[in-house]
Design a protein that fits this description.
alpha/beta; 6-stranded mixed beta sheet; 19 helices; about 30% helix
Length: about 600
């Protein structure tokens, strides 16, 4: 299917006539006649999606009100929220782009502008942008976290998303949550993927090389010991483009290593420099692109140290950043971008490149507003077929949201609080701990919470719950460890994600303090001080080490919801913060600052 601009505008009009978007309401919503009209520039176009987390259908997704940057990162994208972000990038408040980029007046604005994402809408938009630039001059790159995040992805082991990406026409991808399936499933899914899977930083352990189970896999390089192709060369716009893959460096630490026992990860800066140098010498590309799942802070540091990369298309930290950062390094400069999550954004990088390299660029981070884009019929049918065997379970109603339920922000969200409340109640625990994942969709007040919504927040391949005793010292150690992963001054030590969520526990957090000194004044919800040697009953889920023995977390949350008609979060249990007053990465925070 190929859409010209004229066809696309006609489909917008048809959508309005069908009631999807009343044309008379466009002015009131401050929606331009064609928000996806981009002038053609240069000779090639790179389209970038990342962190879609298996969301095939349109969703709501609220951006954070807390995304703290400390030290050199203070006041620098992506560590800007709300009005500070709009001011920094010169975005006018109240319109489509402002709503897409911020949490401001979220529920009210979401009612006005509707859902975002959806692979059927994304395919229509991608095909239009390909047609305008020329299919032979366009590449679609996927930064990973694509095969995980929904019930259908879990039940099909990611294969539903492989099919969707093939239909969308993804040319190149890398990974992170892709590796949380079993290694054999990862290999099978990559074999079924029609594009190229690249990852320069995934190596086969030396002890596994002697009897490597996947030695026949096409991407395996026995001489270098690399599990996957480190890069691919593609022709686009009459020039050669090198796309190097950078998978999430900390996969075996942040996720269970038992699923992928033969593979090592890491940032591998030295190897990356060697590959960039070799690619430039042997392949003579006009453009070198790093398709990264490092997280934006890591990418910014990497861009300052590795020579020869023109552009980093980044993911992992779910940051919607409307303009690339230009980073100087010993070899010149590198552009660094990040394209949000959940199918909410499509990054469009138009480039003027030739034998002398990159000459100029134009970038737009396009919000994918579902009501503005007619869904592609073929993708719509595919999605319906994927969901058909599971539809009854997905659509089971559980309760009604009494307020906006969201997950996103350094410390806690209302859906995270719901999970903690469910763990404490169903497991009869004093304290609940829940991972600070950044994926998970949003519900508006009055929406029915279905099993699908619960799965969108909890669906991982290690979902088992636990109930065990921990000492006060152990609790503090957990909080300190995760806090350091988030706020360590060295981006190479950060692992992305957000602070572990807690229920029944109050504490003070000073993000800028020294390692081991960020957490203090721990108390139970009733104000009783936590004692280092005393044992407390703790419920949680998603153990990275040994597999827990409890039921999947979605069953725990569903049990809690079925006993309630309406969910109103009585108290959002966020830590009290110290030392971050006036930080532009925090706004509307309920705790002391």
């Amino acid at each position: 299917m190929t859409l010209s601009r004229r066809d696309f505008v006609r489909l917008l009009a048809l959508a309005g006539a069908a009631g999807m978007l009343p044309l008379s309401a466009r002015a009131a919503r401050r929606i331009p006649a064609d928000p996806y009209d981009l002038p053609v520039f240069g000779n090639l176009r790179l389209l970038h999606i990342t962190d879609t987390h298996a969301q095939l259908n349109p969703v709501y997704y609220r951006e954070p009100n807390v995304n703290l940057g400390l030290g050199a990162a203070r006041g620098r994208a992506p560590h800007l929220v709300g009005q500070a972000l709009l001011d920094h990038f010169g975005v006018a408040p109240g319109g489509l782009e402002a709503h897409a980029l911020t949490y401001l007046d979220y529920a009210e604005q979401a009612e006005r502008f509707g859902r975002v994402g959806g692979f059927a809408q994304l395919r229509t938009l991608v095909e239009r942008l390909r047609a305008e630039r020329g299919r032979e001059a366009t590449l679609l790159l996927d930064g990973g976290d694509t095969w995980q995040g929904s019930g259908t992805a879990y039940w099909t082991r990611g294969r539903d998303m492989v099919g969707a990406c093939n239909l969308l026409g993804v040319d190149v991808m890398t990974g992170h949550w892709e590796f949380t399936y079993r290694d054999a499933e990862v290999i099978d899914n990559i074999a079924a993927f029609a594009g190229d899977f690249v990852a320069q930083n995934v190596k086969v352990r030396e002890e596994a090389l002697f009897d490597y189970r996947f030695e026949d896999f096409a991407g395996f390089d026995e001489d270098l010991g690399l599990a996957f192709d480190p890069y691919v060369i593609r022709e686009a716009g009459g020039v050669r483009v090198a796309v190097i893959g950078q998978a999430f460096p900390y996969t075996p630490i942040a996720n269970p290593s038992r699923f992928i026992p033969d593979w090592t990860f890491g940032i591998q800066e030295g190897r990356l420099q060697e590959i960039v140098d070799r690619v430039r010498e042997r392949e003579r590309p006009a453009l070198v692109v790093l398709l990264s799942h490092n997280g934006m802070d890591v990418d910014l540091k990497l861009a300052s140290r590795v020579r020869g990369i023109d552009l980093i298309l980044g993911g992992h930290t779910h940051d919607g950043v409307p303009a690339p950062q230009v980073v100087d390094n010993p070899g010149g400069r590198t552009l660094v971008t990040n394209a949000g999550s959940n199918g909410k954004f499509l990054g469009v990088m138009d480039l003027d490149a030739g034998p002398g390299g990159l000459r100029d660029f134009r970038y737009r981070l396009l919000p994918v507003f579902s009501d503005l884009i007619a869904p592609d019929p073929e993708m719509t049918d595919y999605i319906a077929g994927v969901r058909a065997p599971y539809r009854a379970r997905l659509e089971e109603p559980l309760a009604v949201a009494g307020q906006t339920l969201y997950r996103r922000g350094n410390f806690n969200g209302t859906f995270d609080q719901l999970i903690c409340d469910a763990l404490r109640t169903v497991k009869d625990a004093e304290i609940a701990l829940s991972p600070g994942f950044r994926w998970g969709t949003t519900l508006l007040p009055g929406q029915t919470i279905t099993m699908e919504h619960v799965l969108d927040q909890t669906c991982i391949t290690y979902p088992e719950t636990y109930r065990r005793e921990m000492t006060g010292a152990e609790l503090k150690a957990i909080l300190e460890d995760v806090c350091d992963n988030l706020f360590n001054p060295d981006p190479y030590v950060q692992q992305g994600g957000d602070m572990v969520r807690s229920g029944g526990l109050d504490y003070v957090c000073e993000p800028g303090a020294a390692i081991g000194s960020r957490i203090r004044s721990l108390r139970l919800a009733d104000g009783t001080p936590i004692e280092a040697d005393k044992r407390y009953v703790v419920a949680g889920w998603a153990s990275v080490g040994a597999q827990a023995e409890g039921e999947p977390i979605w069953e725990t949350v569903a049990t809690y919801l079925r006993d309630r008609e309406r969910i109103d979060i009585a108290r959002l249990e966020t830590p009290r913060l110290a030392g971050v007053a006036d930080n532009p990465g925090i706004a509307d925070y309920p705790g002391e600052v």
